[in-house]
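Project outcomes to date are best conveyed with an example. Our students and postdoctoral researchers have been running inverse folding experiments weekly, and each run begins with a structure described purely in tokens. The record below, which covers 730 residues, was selected by the lab manager from last quarter's runs and is presented without edits.
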């Protein structure tokens, strides 16, 4: 395939330490994630990029189930992206590692862990809808990970498309400085069809040249009908950049008209500093604006060498690592995927390499698991396909085969190194299924399937009830759990018996309470006594109902190994609260004193031996139980339930029924606003238990014309009957 764009190569800054070319080659690499609200066109855009760059000879369609990036059977059947899919494309002089992330809120953890290791993001928006609810969610993830971003306003060919209105919504709802650098020719509410896109930076127009959907983007004359508007928008762009960038301000102050390269260089500096979000535009389905977007990725988003290595800390104590160069190699695991090869299941581990090189045979230390593992192969991923490569270098995103004891969030370093990187943050699950095998002989297969799914997707939580023989599988929503059950059947060949949904309730304390535990054990014929005292209190600085920490009070002298043992015992015991057996969250457990002594020896501390270590764990558990008993007796324990914010887009003629149904679900509505011709947007909050199955009810109420989305909004006190059916299922 011949790339026909006449656009000049993107300007690449000299990024080496001496101002010259970077000897590592990282200046020509981009690690980029594509993210957006569901149905904004992320996957369609990625498919067009694959075609535009020559990676694929045909353009996959989401609606036809032929997209390359949506390679899982569940993705193709449902027409949505479930898992982040990676690929690598070449565009002119730049290599781009591209990750297509999900847009549905149930799979938001895929976006979180992808953004943790990427250097840039493309925020895709529907030209007619602007910023949508999940757009705000992914933007918060982008900002939380300090990832520079550019925007792509998609579907400009559709009625109601308005690039300038999208820019206004970015500023109003995301709080970001949006700069329009691409403008459509036709489309939207104009009578003319979309025929091209204007690059305002270089004042050039581009359109699709060639037959139908298989055409390629190339240079076209700038139509007279848009010249005036283009010149006004370009002048506004230059003025805005002059206010933000000192170098460009000097050019303007000297009375010169900035060149396209000078404008591009200013944009690059501001994007890397995360001060602006440039907005390109087009139509992914027809290919308009895709080549300009690739130019924008190369020109404005940072290379790995522009981004510092994330902060490191020493594994044992959590203290900051000393200043200096990072260990080589240094890599962070952000995803694990299980594949079946020749009848055997094997894990493929996705990593971002921050320093050094990794090749087949490299031995890597995982401090969390305490295991040294040998890399069997280094893989380049293209959706479901893999390519073996010789070596992965600093800045690259690759997959490794052969790692057995490594999971998401682990840091891989040379043997003996104690340095770790901060893992991606994971949200707490909000909904659960009880599952069990249909036949006893399927128990081991089901266990393996559940454990592998939880290993691949850390937002799935798994707990086994040995007494009932059931597993509690918790996730981020109904669709998340449905997909997990479908994968068990299609990939592992086991279909478990499942219960109704269980909302993930949590228990927390509202005021401090204390307790102590004493255990006596015989050690070498001498009676030993272990006493542990703890205090439970609401956690500080965390979201209500989230988080569980164990800490040592000041003055308590305890070896790190002994504290880890006590901490593990307390964390395990805290998984069952005193009111209804729900896990404790939003709670800090403080170990206020520990006495390890042998009777008859003057009470001198003796921390040696497995017997006293076990006794200290048991004493800690007894102390926590007493503290929880005190808290329960004084009414200091409450049950919390997940609350969701929701957005319903509904036609006017059925909005009354929709609002009435929401009121019956005890929803607290924030606003009901008109969003255009004969449509309304309803926003508010409601308990998750009230929204289970709501999408089905909404389809019935609106005859399939209304849309619904929701996202977690923290935990609030549970208003139902504790221990009753309402607290566990719907």
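After processing, the design step wrote out the following sequence:
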């Amino acid at each position: 395939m011949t790339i026909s764009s006449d656009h000049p190569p993107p300007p690449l800054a000299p990024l080496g330490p001496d101002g010259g070319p970077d000897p590592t080659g990282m200046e020509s690499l981009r690690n980029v994630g594509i993210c957006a609200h569901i149905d904004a066109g992320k996957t369609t855009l990625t498919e067009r990029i694959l075609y535009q760059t020559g990676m694929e000879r045909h353009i996959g369609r989401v609606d036809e189930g032929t997209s390359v990036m949506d390679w899982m059977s569940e993705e193709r059947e449902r027409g949505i992206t479930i898992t982040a899919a990676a690929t690598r494309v070449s565009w002119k002089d730049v290599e781009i590692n591209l990750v297509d992330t999900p847009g549905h809120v149930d799979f938001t953890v895929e976006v979180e862990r992808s953004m943790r290791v990427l250097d840039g993001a493309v925020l895709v928006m529907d030209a007619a809808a602007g910023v949508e609810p999940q757009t705000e969610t992914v933007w918060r993830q982008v900002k939380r990970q300090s990832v520079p971003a550019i925007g792509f306003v998609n579907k400009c060919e559709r009625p109601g498309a308005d690039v300038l209105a999208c820019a206004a919504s970015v500023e109003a709802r995301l709080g970001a400085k949006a700069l329009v650098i691409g403008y459509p020719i036709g489309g939207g509410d104009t009578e003319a069809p979309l025929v091209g896109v204007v690059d305002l930076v270089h004042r050039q127009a581009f359109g699709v040249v060639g037959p139908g959907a298989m055409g390629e983007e190339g240079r076209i004359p700038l139509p007279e009908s848009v010249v005036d508007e283009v010149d006004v928008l370009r002048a506004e762009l230059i003025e805005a950049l002059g206010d933000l960038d000192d170098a460009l301000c000097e050019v303007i102050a000297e009375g010169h008209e900035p060149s396209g390269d000078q404008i591009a260089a200013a944009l690059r500096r501001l994007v890397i500093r995360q001060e602006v979000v440039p907005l390109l535009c087009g139509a992914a389905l027809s290919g308009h604006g895709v080549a300009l977007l690739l130019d924008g990725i190369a020109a404005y988003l940072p290379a790995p060498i522009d981004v510092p290595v994330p902060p490191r800390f020493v594994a044992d104590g959590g203290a900051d690592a000393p200043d200096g160069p990072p260990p080589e190699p240094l890599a962070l695991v952000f995803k694990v995927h299980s594949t079946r090869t020749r009848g055997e299941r094997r894990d493929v581990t996705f990593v971002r390499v921050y320093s050094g090189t990794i090749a087949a045979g490299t031995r890597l230390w995982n401090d969390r698991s305490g295991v040294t593992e040998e890399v069997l192969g280094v893989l380049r991923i293209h959706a479901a396909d893999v390519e073996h490569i010789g070596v992965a270098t600093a800045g690259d995103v690759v997959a490794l085969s052969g790692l057995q004891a490594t999971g998401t969030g682990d840091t891989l370093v040379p043997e003996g190194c104690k340095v770790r990187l901060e893992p991606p943050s994971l949200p707490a699950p909000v909904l659960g299924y009880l599952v069990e095998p249909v036949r006893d002989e399927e128990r081991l297969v089901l266990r393996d399937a559940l454990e592998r799914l939880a290993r691949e997707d850390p937002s799935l939580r798994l707990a086994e009830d040995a007494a009932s023989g059931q597993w509690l599988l918790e996730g981020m929503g109904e669709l998340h759990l449905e997909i997990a059950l479908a994968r068990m059947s299609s990939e592992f060949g086991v279909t478990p018996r499942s219960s109704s949904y269980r909302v993930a309730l949590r228990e927390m304390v509202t005021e401090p309470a204390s307790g102590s535990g004493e255990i006596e054990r015989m050690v070498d014929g001498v009676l030993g006594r272990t006493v542990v005292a703890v205090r439970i209190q609401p956690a500080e600085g965390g979201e209500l109902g989230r988080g569980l920490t164990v800490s040592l009070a000041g003055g308590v002298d305890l070896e790190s190994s002994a504290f880890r043992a006590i901490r593990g015992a307390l964390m395990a015991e805290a998984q069952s609260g005193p009111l209804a057996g729900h896990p404790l969250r939003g709670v800090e457990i403080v170990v206020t004193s520990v006495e390890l002594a042998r009777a008859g020896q003057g009470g001198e501390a003796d921390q040696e031996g497995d017997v006293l270590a076990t006794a200290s764990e048991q004493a800690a558990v007894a102390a926590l139980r007493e503290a929880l008993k005190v808290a329960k007796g004084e009414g200091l324990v409450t049950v919390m339930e997940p609350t969701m914010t929701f957005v319903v887009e509904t036609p006017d003629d059925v909005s009354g029924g929709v609002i009435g149904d929401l009121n019956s679900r005890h929803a607290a509505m924030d606003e009901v606003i008109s969003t255009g011709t004969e449509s309304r947007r309803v926003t508010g909050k409601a308990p998750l238990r009230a929204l289970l199955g709501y999408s089905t009810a909404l389809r019935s109420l609106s005859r399939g014309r209304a849309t619904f989305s929701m996202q977690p909004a923290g935990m609030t006190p549970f208003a139902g009957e504790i221990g009753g059916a309402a607290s566990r299922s719907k």
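The two ends are 54 Å apart (CA to CA). The first helix runs from residue 42 to 52. The training component of this project remains on track.
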